[in-house]
Design goal:
Blueprint lengths: L8 H35 L3 H27 L13
């Protein structure tokens, strides 16, 4: 996050908007990764790779929860919960 306190009010607003846009992009990227990981898991038959997809899914879930908290702290309240993604 940029140090938005040292900017002119307009620059601060622009920096905040960039941060929000970057955050939303990252949330969408994580959601795509979660869906792809779930698809790979559903069609996998090798036990080692099943474990790998489970760990990958857990990574995405933890990352998504973190990003939702960041979004909430920035006043973005329309990010869906994990249950509504898959």
């Amino acid at each position: 996050m940029e140090n938005v306190t040292s900017f002119h009010p307009l620059e601060r607003e622009q920096a905040l908007q960039r941060e929000i846009e970057n955050l939303l992009d990252e949330i969408n990227e994580v959601r795509r990764g979660m869906k792809a990981s779930l698809c790979r898991f559903c069609f996998e038959t090798d036990e080692d790779l099943i474990d790998a997809w489970i760990f990958e899914q857990e990574f995405y879930e933890a990352r998504y929860r973190y990003l939702r908290r960041r979004a909430k702290s920035l006043g973005i309240g329309s990010i869906p919960r994990l249950e509504t993604i898959a």
